[in-house]
Amino acid sequence: MKALLICPADRQAVAALARRQPLALGPFLGKRILDHALTFLAARGAKKIRVLAADRPDEIRAFVRRGETWGVSIEVLPEARELSREEARSKYQSADPAGWLPTPHDILALDALPQLPGHPLWENYAGWQAALLAWLPEGARQRVGMRERSPGVYIGRRTRIAPTAKLHPPCWLGDHAWVGPRAVIGPETVVENQVYVDESAEIVHSVIGPLTYVGVLTEVRDSLAWGCDLLNLQSGSHSEVSDHFLLGELGLSVGRSSSPWPGRLAALLTLALTSPLLLVAWRRNCGSGQPLLLRKIAVRSGSRQAMPVGDTFDYHELSGFAGWTRRWPQLWNIARGDFRWVGNRPLAPAQAAQLDTEFERLWLAAPTGLFSLADTLGCPDDLSDDARSHASFYAVDPDARKEWRVLWRVFCAVFGRGSA
User: Fold this and answer.
1) Is pLDDT at 305 greater than 70 in this prediction?
2) Which residue range forms the structural domain that includes residue 338?
3) Burial of 1 (0-12, 13-18, 19+ CB in 10 A)
4) Does residue 127 lie within any of the structural domains?
């Protein structure tokens, strides 16, 4: 059975939704809008689908490929402008009238999800948001790993939520999201995949696009926030937030792999001033048969490879100690240029192989650090879901302000509570 699918082109009423990609490829509860439509047609027996695209057909072709994901054959046909259903029927169906899906599914115009024909997507931003919210229960039913934490609150795979965070229904949190302490999500809110909501942020009647950072104490209300872009869903006004500590794009920026020379000098000075620690460690280990310095192997940062191969380097831990004191020899790694003061903790090749997704493999995109964001949030030296999320979110936007924030938290932890 055959079908035509007409992708939307120019829609001035929702023009901001097409700034990053064609409207058909916009995120919609963890999937693309086009994905939902193709799933619908495949479920109704379509085996050959022609996708008519006037807006960036190359991007649509790259997404659908040959249709393997849906078990169908897909051909993307560029058009000079968006065709109406009648024009598409005349151009493609009249000369080949046999073997089509029954009307109206033979020619599908993607003005609404075919599963939600009563919710037009492109008349205004509020209508697009209303369609998202209307699709929540069915979208959760179709997503593998999605769970309903409480009535109307849907949580995706490997999404971590702080115990003090508050979730008000209806709301949706996609896969690999992280919600910090005292954050407020909902009602009528959608948080897409791989979003980091920092502590005490508040998101109400809003949509957060994928790979977006929402900063500490940031309030998003009646808006679409996607990276640095902020769009009011009621008025349609659009602005770009320049302060990445309020809103930020979680891209693939990789920080410098080594500390600048002041950081290296500080490491050497700290190493010299704390050198009596070696004597303490020697006395603790005397007669234990354990070496004073435990040798470790780490995958060098920046490779972004989750395989037990590639460039590696050695570092050491101090035997006989626990916690951050154990890392004392790694000050020498900072002086040598293998570490920074703040980064992601080193991973052995076998640990790197356990990073399952491209998002998790961002751990290796950041410089290796003596201290990490995960350290300050209670996830030291492990591969828990929390640690993976913190490492990935740090990797996409390392900067000096974030590093000073991590160092301040470490200082408060060590001297405020007297622990090491």
Assistant:
1) no
2) 261-416
3) middle
4) no
